[in-house]
Amino acid sequence: MPAYWFKPKRYGYGATPVTWQGWALTIGTVLAMVAVSLYLRLTANSVWALVALLLFDAVAISALAIISYRKTVGGWRWRWGD
């Protein structure tokens, strides 16, 4: 039996964390994105630093979306409430 970390939102599309693993994944992703952006801003001010930042952010958000999709009970679909 898989352990679910997220539950579907009541309205709209997507999911919200409900366990400590889901919250840790979400907060860890945000902290990693902030850390990389601060590091690149302080060390390099070039177009390539911006490209690296955007690439890292795209990979981080994609990984978060894929993991949360797989760890959501009931899957993702548009919901209109109960």
How is the secondary structure organized here?
Blueprint: E1 6-8, E2 11-12, E3 15-17, H1 20-43, H2 47-70, E4 79-80
Antiparallel strand pairs: 1-3, 2-4
Helix pairs in contact: 1-2
Describe the protein.
By secondary structure, the chain is of the alpha+beta class. The chain has one domain. It is 59% helix and 12% strand. A two-stranded antiparallel sheet has the order 1-3. The longest helix is centred in the middle third of the chain and has 24 residues. The chain starts with 5 loop residues before the first strand and ends with a strand.
Describe this protein with a few key phrases:
59% helix, 2 helices, 12% strand, alpha+beta, two-stranded antiparallel ribbon, 82 residues
- What class would the helix/strand composition place it in? alpha+beta
Low-confidence stretches: none
Discrete helix count? 2
User: How big a fraction of the residues is strand?
Assistant: 5-15%
Q: Which geometry do the CA atoms define?
A: elongated
Short description:
The chain has 82 residues and is of the alpha+beta class. Helix content is 59%, strand content 12%.
